[in-house]
């Protein structure tokens, strides 16, 4: 954020943040009021994340709730932030639809001493206290390429099936994928197309068909979105391309179980969304209780996940993404 | 006898006129068909795989759900009404039936029946509000769009139906077929043919057109307006329900807002298909063609490797092109007709 | 009265619409094998009475007797199933459906499995038009039919029901003599088959030619029911109007001034060709011809409704540019169109706003409309044309046919045009009002207005016109000066038999 | 033809009156039940959130009154936003961007208008097409980017209130435009013409009303206003994106219809529409404050629409039943 009104304000905001000194052994306050604001409610993935976050809050005797728009648009998120501010909460946990659009209101919130935890999809770093990253975006991007390369022997045309063209985290990952592909060991692989399924089953489905017809020698598809990978797998599993084209990406085990079992998909990755919500919840608590301020190097206890340290830019990384395959998929249920 | 007395004017030669007029009316369907053929031909030339068995199968599979909805919508639009709630109904039905069949394997037949029932119920509500309370269709169905959507979300609570939970037998309905012909298009075509035939060949069918063409005249002619309009909505709801079940069968993974925003898609299909939005004119065949055209455009643009960002723009452009060409054709024919009558006149 | 029981009868029927009391204790009896006339001024309540028979309106008071038994018609469907067929004053067709389907909607001849037998349907329809002596293609869609043709379809629809009772509300208003004659022979036939008929017309001579009994209404009140024998037209008029009637066609002779409207070589392909004529200030020029001759089309083209393919129009010497009614109005033209429901009036809009629509600018004070001026304008013309209405704020659609016609006239006369084109100005207007309209027209002409009058009513044409232009199949076949204008001369020209420059 | 005329309607409960009453009730109830509602901070949020919808609702009302509709408004808004972003990226001065964007909006409206008036296509069909087209162009212009960092002073204009009031500048502007539009619709010759066109286009044309020109004008107005709303939107959220305002058109139409404008044209009041817009806004805000879940919000909005048209009709039906079901023809 350069010279926007947003950044102007929040500079002051973050200053005030860092001025307050962290007290690592301050106890977690009871009855903290947290609010989860996902990109969009009724999205299975965020439902999982937030549910476990709300569970976590119970552990430290706080109360948490989930509110959010039914469409994944920045504007409707803003209205929710405003109401949350009105209602007065200790912390707002947000998965931003747009890093900048939400900044103004978020800083309003911070000026009222409401802590802001971004998770899953970051906001401009100037308008939140910390960001819980499901895994370093870089690691996700690069590992996806590796995953696919292993399955297609590093040779052939590949395509990416993303969510909406504006999804911040998607685009970051895709950048890293492109970068990874520049490496010599992937010289055999050629990214021919980035398609957008708008996280809509039917559209993702049709986009997949299109890709396969448009690029006859397509070897693999990476879909770093839960809706996309399911749609792609579903189409291929019921088409002549089954076994010829590899699908991988980010998906939930329950979604993908069928396609792993029937051999359409060998491997796909995801972090544990429950842990993500859990960690975010604890981070919010730590912030509100003054254990941390969001400065680099601070540490806090995150219940069963143990102690976590804040990295650069106030990022806390959940851990490396986990790779599912037919051997381990049945150990998970989410 | 004081008024002007004499032989009536030599009128246009009926036969020629009749034939031409039929052509004008059918031209709407024809022009869409033409557009479709051109589109497919061009694509096939650029990329032969587009017409591969798989490719063709895909086109029809994609279209069939939209076709079903378009047929239902046509019935409603012909009576000078509109049903914006279909998208929400599909979502609701897809999810609820999904919920029903998931878990311990339940009977597919039962699932379908439930789907149809829910759809019919939604249609009934719309129909009663429009026909008996006489409230403007657009407002009512915009309202029920929100309501039904809300109910869908409420039931779903953010959960999702996964392909794994859906019994294979139901999934087969979505991808399987009889002797090479997949079920979905088969169902769609059967429904279309049935409704189309009914509208054309049965007195009660014609009354739908009468109502849309002039409600006042319909009342004076003793047409049971309310009953027909109600029927139109119930059928539309019923088909939306069927579409919902097929949606589940086809995509396996379903969230509550499946088919969100499809109402506009359906309406454009119907309009492109030459069904007059003011009622009284059009056929389900045209609407079905419209649906086919729209879905084909969707696939074609990907197959032609059109830049993702241009896809929406071009879809819109082609849509406008379709209706404009259709319109120009109609105007042209009218002029021809007038010239014709000139040669008979003098 | 003793004797046979009436097939259908009204007893002390009353009906009011809000403030308007359309029917006050009216009684009427229709007997088998008799044609009963219903006479009355515009707004007397004739159509309301008809709609009561038809089940469109339910009477507030009184009863309907079917074969002596009281019945209740809740809807037109009920009346139809009771054997009552109705031709309404205003044709109401399905524009998108074929003429045949319009006739047989809901009663189509069935084939196997209850399917529509189209060929049979078209054959039947053709048969009906045969009976009515009108060649019309049953497959043709109803859209684009002239008022006259629409009326014919309505008639065909009604007689196709072979009903016990046939009710006709001004069926001949739009017809030419030829078609009227055929209609009458059909009606005669039905009467002999023992059908009971009710006939409404503002042309008294038709009533005397066709009917045996007559009932007169005045302001919704029953005045008399009597046999027509021994009754003179004047008696009937007095009963209707309640006073002696002044003379029709009071054309004053005026010295024509300079040319106000000059039409040269006007052509619209497929409708009319090479039409040229002039209308001078103070002149009333009639445009006569058969239905479909293209008279209205000429008027439309002059006024800029339709594009003209060739030719020019001059108003007061200034050429009129491309098709635009606004331009035509600015130049001083006014057109009273032939179809008042579609073209003449905005049915859902109030009477005063309809009257104001043609002169919005004149009624504005600065940018804003002055309601006061609007009201005054309406009130003024309502008086001048003796409009029968309840509140100036009511929708014009609730006015009786004739009163609607008056509103159309008012809204155009209000623009104080220099050339007035009237298409069938007295269609559906009662004798009294007709006289008023005629006087109005000749006054205006005397005041220097140039009038072009399209009419199918020959006496009107002969009576009012200084010159008669006759059209035949889209061409002007004759121009007849007032003194030579006789029914024969006009007729022969209209049918193309007469004529120097005939096609 | 069932005659629901100004005169006749007056005899029933009128939609716009009803809606206004409802608005007041909701407002009072809201301030009573929820302490967070009636404070200036929240109200100006709520109003600000309505800005764009309210602005677009004005030309939409005029269009619907004369029997047309424009579904492409939200896409024009998106296109305007995207264009603002890309031009700003390209280093243009904001002062030059604004007029350019407005002109683009004008062109969008012009295209809609010409297709409707020149080809005589139904506006519903045309604007469904342009809805897709314009949104697509937005993506062509800006792609996946999200541009921020717009000049301070303009950003402030979009968010801050008129000094001493809880009213954000865009809303204040809306108020002014609303009054102007109300006068235009209800007190000028043009307004009369709109109603005439709405209830009988042919008759209006015969009476010398410039039907096509007027319609064209309205579509253009809708285009320009939507583009302007796009700029406001962009500044308000400090972010220009191709998907801004997606799906807004239905909300706009919903509030217009809620305001009692007859979708078949010829009937409606601007007062009703304003009440409708506010009602939808206030209600949403209130439901959010009370933590009512999104799905329930949707249901409430829907029911509201239905009830708002049902109530007056039912009273009408009852009245007709009492008047022995007469059907004016
Ligand atoms: N031969 C025909 N067959 C069918 N319709 C026709 C024919 N000729 C004209 N029409 C239609 O009927 C209408 C009658 O033409 P027009 O009104 O110009 O003739 P007219 O002499 O004015 O008849 P009217 O006495 O009805 O005014 C025209 O609008 C035209 O569309
Ligand atoms: N639907 C209605 N609502 C209100 N008033 C009506 C309605 N229909 C008719 N009227 C009024 O009832 C009276 C009788 O109208 P009606 O149409 O029966 O007259 P009419 O005898 O048919 O006249 P015309 O000869 O001009 O057709 C008129 O004053 C008319 O304004
Ligand atoms: Mg009458
Ligand atoms: Mg005529």
Architecture overview:
The complex is a heterotetramer of chains A (334), B (346), C (503) and D (329). With 334 residues, chain A is of the alpha/beta class. Chain A contains ten helices and 14 strands. Chain A has a six-stranded parallel sheet with strand order 2-1-3-4-5-13, sandwiched between helices. Chain A has a four-stranded parallel sheet with strand order 7-6-8-9, with helices on both faces. Chain B has helices at residues 14-46, 53-78, 86-101, 108-132, 137-156, 168-175, 183-201, 203-213, 215-220, 225-251, 262-272, 284-303, 308-345; strands at residues 177-178, 181-182. Chain B is globular, with a radius of gyration of 22 Å. Chain C is globular, with a radius of gyration of 23 Å. Chain D has helices at residues 6-11, 15-33, 40-65, 73-89, 94-117, 123-142, 152-159, 169-187, 189-199, 201-206, 211-237, 248-258, 270-289, 294-322. In chain D, α3 (40-65) packs antiparallel against α11, α7 (152-159) packs across α11 (211-237) and α12 (248-258) packs across α13 (270-289). The interface between B and C is large, with 46 and 66 residues. Residues 17, 20, 22, 40, 42-48, 89, 388, 398-402, 428, 430 of chain C line the site of one adenosine-5'-triphosphate (ATP).
Question: What's the short story on this structure?
Answer:
The complex is a heterotetramer of chains A (334), B (346), C (503) and D (329). With 346 residues, chain B is an all-alpha fold.
Which structural class do the helices and strands of chain A define? alpha/beta
Q: In percent, how much strand structure appears in the residues of chain A?
A: 15-25%
Mean pLDDT of chain A: 86
**Biggest sheet architecture of chain A:** 6 strands, parallel
Give the tags.
heterotetramer; C: 503 residues; alpha/beta; 18 helices; globular; D: 329 residues; mainly alpha; 0% strand; disordered C terminus; binds magnesium ion
Task: Furnish the topology, listing elements before pairings.
The complex is a heterotetramer of chains A (334), B (346), C (503) and D (329).
Chain A: H1 5-19, E1 33-37, H2 44-59, E2 63-66, H3 74-87, E3 91-94, H4 103-111, E4 115-119, E5 130-133, H5 137-152, E6 156-162, H6 168-181, E7 189-196, H7 201-214, E8 218-223, H8 226-237, E9 246-249, H9 253-261, E10 268-270, H10 273-288, E11 299-301, E12 307-309, E13 315-317, E14 322-324
Parallel strand pairs in A: 1-2, 1-3, 3-4, 4-5, 5-13, 6-7, 6-8, 8-9
Antiparallel strand pairs in A: 10-14, 11-12
Chain C: E1 8-17, E2 20-30, E3 34-40, H1 46-54, E4 61-66, E5 69-71, H2 76-81, E6 84-87, H3 99-104, H4 118-132, H5 147-159, E7 165-169, H6 177-192, E8 196-200, H7 204-210, E9 213-218, E10 221-227, H8 233-241, E11 259-268, E12 272-280, E13 284-289, H9 295-303, E14 310-315, E15 318-319, H10 325-331, E16 333-336, H11 340-344, H12 351-356, H13 360-363, E17 364-365, E18 368-369, H14 371-384, H15 401-413, E19 419-423, H16 431-446, E20 450-454, H17 458-464, E21 467-472, E22 475-481, H18 487-494
Parallel strand pairs in C: 3-8, 3-9, 6-7, 7-8, 13-20, 13-21, 16-19, 19-20
Antiparallel strand pairs in C: 1-2, 1-4, 4-5, 9-10, 11-12, 11-14, 14-15, 17-18, 21-22
Helix pairs in contact in C: 4-5
Chain D: H1 6-11, H2 15-33, H3 40-65, H4 73-89, H5 94-117, H6 123-142, H7 152-159, H8 169-187, H9 189-199, H10 201-206, H11 211-237, H12 248-258, H13 270-289, H14 294-322
The structure holds adenosine-5'-triphosphate (2 copies) and magnesium ion (2 copies).
Organism (chain B): Actinocorallia libanotica
Membrane topology (chain B): Multi-pass membrane protein
Transmembrane segments (chain B): 30-47, 59-78, 108-129, 135-156, 177-199, 230-249, 270-303, 309-330
